[in-house]
Amino acid sequence: MHTPGVYLPKDIHFKLEDIPHHPEPLGVLVVNPAFFAIIDVKNPYMEGKEGHVNHQKVMEQWQALYDLYLKWVDEDELESLSELEGVTGCEDMVFCANQSLPWTKDGEKVVVLSNMRYPSRQKEVPAFEEFYTYLGYKIYKLNTTDLLEGNGDFIIHPGKNLFWAGYGHRTGLEGIKEAAGYLGATVIPLKLVSEYFYHLDTCFVPLSEDTVMLCEEAFDEESLSAIKKIFKNVIPIDRTEAVNTFCLNATGLRLKSGKKVAIIQRGSESTNKILRDNGYEVYEVETGEFMKSGGSVFCMKMMHF
Ligand code: ARG
After folding, report:
1. Phi then psi for 118, rounded to 5 degrees?
2. Mean pLDDT confidence for 32-44
3. 255: how many CB neighbours lie within 10 A of its CB?
4. Average pLDDT over residues 250-264
5. Which in 26, 155, 181, 270 has the greatest CB count within 10 A?
6. For the CA atoms of 16, 17, 18, 21, what is the dihedral angle to 10 degrees?
7. What lines the ligand 1 site, CB under 6 Å?
């Protein structure tokens, strides 16, 4: 019998088959970017971009993404689409993958709220607490002062009660350990070693139980070997391509009908081909205004139960 908990790369003696199945979330939450801005540098992509946001493009790009999710809700392929208003002074709140980590434990909806690295972003968290309270979630706040940035650093292994968790920039090992207990899941920490890949969702995209695409330079050697132990196919993506196009911030969704769709920033032909070869219908969108802030498709939504 496999016991859920945190397993460092050197402690992985289990097989993927040992981990129980877990349903994936089909509710989408987005945050309106009315207050989106770049006023300081929180990651290398933001350097020199302060004040350089075209607000009309911001709204258009965000709306196109919103409309895609709405279409799938209308087709009964996703369960729901919710929108939170932004908050004045919370210029990064549109990146709603970061403030929380929802899951189900023994059938109960649970969520771990984040300890965000930057004080301006910590102010975003209460609005999410309110949202999950409304949905009837059991809410966990961390006792540790260590960092945790939600779904930005915790990526679901498709179909399994298993998370891959990036640490080193926005999330710490203590944060991961405490969160894992609340989630009742197996969690494998991965050390992120490059500033450009400051969240796991910038460099790691699982495509199925067996296959993941990633940027190898983002991880230390031990972490890479852990990934290779569990995934049968590991598809490397060129570092320059990942940095320039945010292709590894794509979102893959397995819809209610079983159809697989992927949303991705426009312009990464090789990644689009990999997605198609793995059974995904690819939807390209433009997120250029948000890339100036270091985020793209994956960061701009939260999947919840
Ligand atoms: N400007 C934001 C920050 O640095 C971008 C967050 C992007 N989110 C993500 N999940 N990668 O905090």
Report:
1. -100, 135
2. 97
3. 15
4. 98
5. 155
6. 90
7. 42-43, 92, 95, 97-98, 121, 152, 199, 201-202, 293-295, 299
Tell me the CATH number at 158: 3.75.10.10
Residue 44 scores a pLDDT above 90: yes
Please check whether residue 1 lies inside any domain of the structure. no
* Range 226-254 burial, b when 16+ CB lie within 10 A, else e: bbeebbeeebebbbebbbebbbbbbbbbb
Q: Is residue 4 part of a domain?
A: no
pLDDT exceeds cutoff 90 at 1? no
Say how many domains are in the chain: 1
Domain that holds residue 240: 42-304
- What helix, strand, coil percent values describe the chain, rounded to 5? 35, 25, 40
Phi then psi for residue 266, to 5 deg, are -60, 140
Residue 301 pLDDT more than 90? yes
Asked, for residue 6, whether it belongs to a domain, the answer is no
Average pLDDT over residues 93-100: 98
Would you say residue 166 lies in a domain?
yes
CA distance 35 to 42: 17
Mutate which of 154, 293, 296, 298 for ligand 1? The one with the most ligand atoms within 8 Å of its CB, which is 293
Residues 163/85, Cβ–Cβ less than 8 Å: no
Pick the residue whose CA is nearest to atom 3 on ligand 1: 42
Give the helix/strand (H/E) hosting 130: helix 125-134
Mean pLDDT calculated for residue range 34-45: 97
| Contact (Cβ atoms closer than 8 angstroms) between residue 189 and residue 6 | yes
* Residue 136, pLDDT above cutoff 90: yes
Average pLDDT over all residues of the chain: 97
